[in-house]
Design goal:
It is a single chain. The protein has helices at residues 10-13, 24-27, 32-35, 39-49, 67-78, 89-92, 100-118, 124-134, 137-147, 149-154, 161-177, 179-187, 196-209, 231-245, 258-261, 266-270, 292-303, 316-324, 328-344, 352-368, 382-394, 404-411, 428-436, and strands at 56-61, 82-88, 218-224, 251-256, 274-278, 373-375, 378-380, 415-417, 424-426. With 441 residues, it is an alpha/beta fold. The protein folds into 3 domains: 7-15 and 282-368, Orthogonal Bundle (Helicase, Ruva Protein, domain 3); 38-278, Rossmann fold, CATH 3.40.50; 373-436, no CATH class. It has a 5-stranded parallel beta sheet, with helices on both faces.
């Protein structure tokens, strides 16, 4: 898709989806100077300097800060040396009831797919071993009860790599859609299920043994969108199963929720992994003064996607950048919403009225997100959220306490984190909500 030269092309140019690897040369803008950190370069160096040493990364960052695009940049840089297997838990699994065993099942499905695509060889001993596992009483019972005889019949293609690829794909989908089967995985009532970890690692070893055939040196597994599942789900996954996740005998990147970085359990979790955090792009310094380099990066990102003469007022883009707080997702939402309003009224440029409507919509979304939370025995009232936000606005250190309220506010982007000494601030639109309520001046 070419740069938008009229309002009709704007909406598609500001998709929330990450920039695909093939489009990075056209659209990607390095935000290192605005973030104050080159996180993906650091991961790249660890991988390239330590080939054949299995490193398990957690990669955290605020939603909408560009993590997935940065991961695509990493993929492009290392794709000549690494066979990259990546998938989204949002797309492939049930994000509300996620179990670590499902991650192993999905990795195995992807590995068998890669083996078919690249004609990688897998020893008969491995195939016989996993065939024996599939014929055990426990697994047969799971197949009959949850996968179904019809599905099993559809897999009747002779035992081998294609059969196993189809089996684990069917296994994944069944676990995703069947709560009863998921309970078995969650409770680990079937001892044979736990053996999947070993079979997955053996399969990784089989793939690595034949990598030279396709000109690769190592494997990298990237599991995306773990930061988008409910926080209690990701907390349980990383708190209870970090040991199992790091048993994977290959390099792995697990995306990680920002709220969990500020959790008392984070130090315990991060001891299993190599942690990296992607900071937000800074548009203001801690004292509130404008940070020009960060703003210029955001201008450049916009200008690669649209002609900025489509704004009737040349200061409108500056105001959008200011009110985004450096969150690319929110900048894109403001531009898309304003452009759509302009088109509704058959305008050729975005006017102040269009921008005002977009601004008010996004501000309303943030206002609605600050509400009483009742979660089991835990209750956080809206007043506590407002008190936390007000205190941060008035703080000189910009270092909020890691209360439950503050963690929730980080997770929903009401509080944004920046580089330097890791200071935070309230999202500009949320500041306006506080002003509207008379809580700050």
């Amino acid at each position: 898709m070419e740069k938008a030269t009229d309002l009709k092309g704007v909406y598609g140019q500001f998709s929330p989806e990450p920039i695909p690897v093939e489009d990075l040369d056209k659209y990607y803008v390095s935000a290192t100077e605005g973030r104050g950190d080159n996180t993906t370069k650091a991961i790249e160096l660890v991988l390239l300097d330590n080939t054949h040493v299995n490193t398990h990364f957690i990669f955290a960052g605020y939603r909408g800060c560009g993590k997935s695009t940065e991961l695509n940049v990493l993929k492009k840089r290392i794709q000549d040396k690494f066979l990259i297997i990546d998938f989204s838990v949002i797309e492939e699994l049930d994000p509300f009831n996620l179990n670590y065993i499902e991650l192993f099942v999905t990795i195995m499905e992807k590995l068998f797919t890669v083996a078919i695509e690249h004609e990688l060889s897998i020893h008969d001993n491995y195939l016989k071993s996993i065939q024996t596992w599939l014929q055990t009483e426990e697994i047969v019972r799971i197949k009959e009860k949850y996968i179904g005889t019809d599905a099993e019949a559809g897999l009747d293609m002779g035992f081998g790599i294609p059969y196993l690829q189809k089996f684990f794909a069917t296994f994944r989908v069944s676990a995703k859609n069947n709560q009863s089967m998921k309970q078995i995985l969650t409770r680990n009532e079937e001892p044979k299920i736990s053996k999947l970890t070993g079979y997955c690692n053996d399969l990784i070893g089989e793939a690595k043994r034949d990598l030279q055939k396709i000109g690769k040196e190592d494997i990298l597994v990237i599991i995306e969108d773990l930061d988008k599942v409910p926080l209690d789900v990701s907390t349980k996954l990383f708190t209870n199963y970090s040991n199992q996740l790091t048993e994977l005998q290959t390099n792995c990147i697990f995306t990680f929720p920002i709220g969990l970085v500020y959790n008392p359990k984070y130090n315990m979790i991060s001891s299993y992994f190599q942690p990296f955090i992607l900071p937000m792009i800074k548009v203001n310094d801690k004292d509130g003064s404008s940070f020009e380099r960060g703003r210029e990066i955001m201008r450049t990102i916009v200008r690669k996607r649209m002609d900025d003469t489509l704004f009737e007022d040349e200061n409108m883009l500056e105001d959008m950048i200011e009110n985004s707080g450096g969150c690319l997702r929110d900048l894109f939402r403001l531009i898309k919403s304003a452009a759509l309003d302009a088109r509704i009224y058959e305008r050729e440029k975005i006017k102040q009225d269009d921008y005002r409507h977009a601004y008010n919509r996004l501000k309303r979304d943030y206002s609605n997100a600050i509400a009483d939370k009742i979660d089991g025995d835990q209750t956080v009232y809206a007043k506590e959220y407002y008190d936390t936000l007000t205190a941060l606005v008035n703080s000189e250190t910009k270092q909020p306490d890691n209360t439950i309220a503050a963690l929730d506010l980080r997770q929903n982007l009401s509080i944004l984190g920046y580089n330097d000494d890791g200071w935070c601030d309230v999202h500009p639109l949320v500041k306006q909500v506080l002003k509207d309520k008379g809580l700050i001046t």
